[in-house]
Every structure is written in structure tokens, then in C-alpha cells.
Amino acid sequence: MPSEFDLIARHFSRPAPNAVLGVGDDAALLAPTPGTELVVSTDMLVVGRHFHAHADPYPLGHKALAVNLSDLAAMGAVPRWATLAVALPEADEAWLADFSRGFFELAERFGVSLVGGDTTRGPLNLCVTIMGEAPAGRALRRSGARPGDGIWVSGDLGGAALAVRYLAGEIGLDAADAALCQERLHRPEPRVVLGDMLCCVAHAAIDISDGLLADLGHILEASGVGAEIEFDRLPAHPVVALKRADPLVRRCLLAGGDDYELCFTVPKERDRIMQAVAETAGVPLAKIGHVTAEAGLRLLDGQGREMAVVERGFDHFAA
Ligand code: ADP
Ligand code: MG
Question: Would you tell me which of 70, 77, 145, 234 could form a disulfide with 132, CB atoms 3.0–4.6 Å apart?
Fold first, then answer.
């Protein structure tokens, strides 16, 4: 049986060039860049809730970090360090090797150092804390949206939620479409470069983890404003776009979770730089509507008629 220390040494100890001191001591030592604020967030993936016990560990390593990187991107912060707490039912070396490969591939892509964590026996549970930095006073909060701001969304929406419905047997998809949607569910791409750029462009931002309507709703509530968005402008995942007429698929687009795209508001006069932002960040950006002084979220169809909003999103404590 490998000891806890063998497992840590083999799977989770890598050079941490960003840190004064990384894995191996009682704590890590980090030196944030002068003039920045430390931005910290934690996200946990629980077996049976967020993934299946037999989920492939390689994409799981990616996703455990990706969902955390997404939170930092939504703050307009640059990620730098992470810690990882894992509970494992058994010391499965092959599982750990694949998991850590997925984790480190993404970490290295964005210059994030794993600087510590905890490893214990228990029901499979993965908890990442991400730390990064934003110029002091400039991090993007949910409360910054102003009437007149454009509302923007990165990438496309609904693919991950459609994969969830497909896996639950609620909708049929051909093999190629199912694979496309599952790629979104299992390997979300955190919008790290976009988040960094939005720091000096956007007024408010959030990452879409619980569905567009729910997450945009958080911005509106925190900012004390409302919004008008146009259904036809929502950027749909290609498979979602094909099946848009199906009410279940529309719900995936509006209220499906797990997209990990960014939703953000930008003052109108900055519209003309958004094309350049999209090109530099390497992700399409869609303007889906605008912020209103009047509270409430209005969803409009192609003729400007108000559409009923059925389901707000995903509540973690709902049955
Ligand atoms: P302590 O008993 O002082 O908490 P541990 O034995 O838990 O120390 O951990 C030893 C070292 O390994 C620490 O630096 C800790 O941060 C690191 N570590 C433990 N588990 C992980 C992990 N899953 N990923 C990264 N570092 C880890
Ligand atoms: Mg410990």
C-alpha cells in the first residue's frame, strides 16, 4: 500500500515556479504582486452529485480546476496558485495518475502552480481552492452593472445541459452530437484570458455555472437593475441551435447549467472594442441585450414580444 506521502510525492508534487514555497512544508508561501488584491475562490466536486463514481479521472482532473479558473475569470482576475483537497476511497494509482494529468495540463496552460492540499481516505470528493490577483480596486463584482450597459455572453450555451439530459435518457441524440455535447460537459474551457481582459472593460461579470437566467439574475439583483434580452441573439451550442424548437432544448439554452461561459455587462461606448477583445481572447462574444433601470428580466422574441420565462435555473438544494 502506498502511503499518503508517496501518493502526494508521485501525483501532486511539481515545481511551483510562481510560489516562494510550494508542496512539502506545513504551508505554502506566496508573494502576490504589489498593487494587486488576492482573489480567492473554492469549488468542490462531490461524487454522486457532480460526477459519477466511475467517471473518467482524466477529464475530471481538468474539470476540478476548470470550474475554479472560471470563477477567477468572472472576477477579472489572473489565476496563479491552487490547492487541492482530495478524499479517495482507496489509493488507486492509475486513477490518481490520470486525474493529476488532467489537472496539471490545464494548470500549466495558464501558469497556475499547485502549492498544497490535503489527501485523505473517504468518499470521493475533490476540492480546489484557486488564488489569483487583480489590480487593487479593479476586480469585477456582480454589483457593477449600470442601466444602458450591453449584456454579453462568451462562447455558446446549452451544450453541457443537453449532455446531462441525454445521459439521463430524456432526449435522444445521434452519436456525433452526443459526443459534442459531452465534450462541453466534461471538459469546459475556462475563459481565463477573456476574464483578464474584461477587468478594464466590463462593469460586472459572472460565470454561467447554474444557467444563463439564474446567473444573469444574480448580476441584476446585486446591481439593483433589470434587463431585456433577446432570445434570437443567444449564442446556442451548435447541437442546441439545431434543436431549438424543442422546449427541453430551449430550457438547456436559457437555464441549463455547466456552461462555464462568462456573462458580463459593458458600457455602450465600449461596444466597438469588443470585436478586438473577442479576437485577442480567442472566443466569440455575443451581445444579447441590455441592462434596464427598471427591475426584472424580460426575454423578448424576434418580434419584440415578451416570452414567458419558465425555469430560472438550477438550485443546488432542490430535490
Ligand atoms: P500536514 O499534516 O502538515 O497537513 P500533509 O501531510 O497533509 O501535511 O501534507 C504534506 C504536504 O503535501 C503539504 O505541503 C500539503 O500542502 C501537500 N499536499 C497534501 N495533499 C496534497 C494534494 N492532494 N495536492 C497537493 N499538495 C498536497
Ligand atoms: Mg494536511
Answer: 77
Specify which residues 40 forms β-bridges with.
131
- Does ligand 1 lie within 6 Å of residue 256's CB atom? no
The residue with cell 430535490 is 319
| Closest atom, ligand 1, to C-alpha of 27 | 14
Considering only CA atoms, which residue is closest to atom 7 of ligand 1? 118
Whose CA is closest to atom 16 on ligand 1? 116
d(CA 110, CA 206): 20
Whole-number Å distance between alpha carbons of 122 and 92: 13
CA distances from 95 to 2, 28, 49, 108, 120 (A): 14, 26, 19, 20, 15
Are 164 and 258 in contact by the 8 Å Cβ rule? The answer is: yes
Say whether pLDDT at 312 is over 70: no
* Cα 32 → chain centroid: 23
The contacts of residue 281 (CB under 8 Å, 6+ apart) are: 154, 191, 193, 194, 197
Read off the pTM.
Answer: 0.94
Q: Each residue of 73-101: pLDDT tens digit?
A: 999 999 999 999 999 999 899 999 999 99
| Dist. CA 40 → ligand 2 center (Å) | 20
Residues contacting 308, CB < 8 A, separation 6+? none
- Strands of 50-124, DSSP E: 78-88, 113-121
pLDDT digits (tens, 9 = 90+) for 139-176: 999 999 999 999 999 999 999 999 999 999 999 999 99
- Distance of alpha carbon 257 from alpha carbon 98, whole angstroms: 26
C-alpha cell at 73: 475569470
* β-strands 306-307, 113-121 pairing: unpaired
pLDDT of residue 309: 72
